[in-house]
Amino acid sequence: MSNLTFEEINLLCIYDGGSRQKTVAALKEMRGVLTDEDQALRELTDSALEKLGSMTEDEYSKLELYPDFDE
Question: So where are the chain's domains?
Fold first, then answer.
């Protein structure tokens, strides 16, 4: 399974669609409205999408997508 960063996990928590496929779709939709000022978010989203692309649906379902506010 791909090693997701803390920031990527938090992004997935926000855009989790209940499945890998739906989450990918939600991230792509969000990415489509980013402006030039959103470069850092674009890079984070691209990184998360790349890792999701190499992940199976089963691997995705095992992720603990709960925001960690303590870090």
Answer: 6-57
